[in-house]
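Friendly challenge for the regulars: who can give me the structure tokens for this chain first? No prize, just bragging rights.
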Amino acid sequence: MTCSINELLFQIFQAVLQINSVKAITNMSDHTQENDINYSGTVIKALDILDYLAEHRHPMSTQEIAKGCGMSRPTTYRLLTTLMSRGFIKDDGNYQYSLGLKFLSLSRLVLDELDLVEVARPFLHELCTISNETANLSILDNGELLYIGKEESLNHSGMPALVQLRSTVGTRLKPHSTAMGKAMMAYLPLEERETLLESSLPLKAYTVNTITDLDALRRELEQVRQHGYALDDREVDDGTRCIAAPIFDNTRQVVAAMSVAGPAYRVTRDTLNQLSREVVRIAHNLSHQLGYVGN
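First reply, four minutes later:
Bragging rights claimed.
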């Protein structure tokens, strides 16, 4: 699944337009090949308007929209009026147009159908391919880190057997010792984060590198928020390093994290620094897929 949430909404909108006969699309038989589809120019122009408004995120006049979409003003006004009649566009009273509330109900329908593991699968594959290391997906569940997805690298030589077992889907760990756990804890609402930290005491030491001091962990979480990613520098296992980034949903709440993990001799601190931008980028793209809008 590679299309963005906006593209999903636009596909729904296209179906609505078809049903309501805003502009009839050429009938196609069940045997018509994809490259033989005749698209409606009017529907495409309507979608262009929606895309343009979504991209700029502020009310715009008919003239501004017409210029931005490369359409005549009369055509633009006619499409805006039609879209407004269906709730996809709203007018602030001064002929300034923006996206309408109809998208809220449609987006809710789409988001309710999303399966996090399935949506994340191609992103885990991309991260695994880029890093040539194992990519993981996890959530916080009852105060613990729960692995829910994994893409195993073909280059799994050197990964400690214990770590391979620990990162199996369904495995639970204490979040303070893991990169994914820290990536999620750092972005929890403050009260929720403190409740989780207090309930985790005493902080279990998996290795000599595990952070077991609460104030030190708080400082670590602030650094995660500054950098946008978290590290596990041999904190779960002496022979493993990991880097993770948080994943957000349409409510801007952290809901999961994804990571790259590998043997410490291969995944050095320099390697983690090199991977940080890609991990953050791919996690950000997955967040957008879940409806997140933000930087």
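The beta strands are 89-91, 97-99, 134-141, 144-151, 172-173, 230-233, 240-248, 254-263. The chain has a mean pLDDT of 82. Your move, everyone else.
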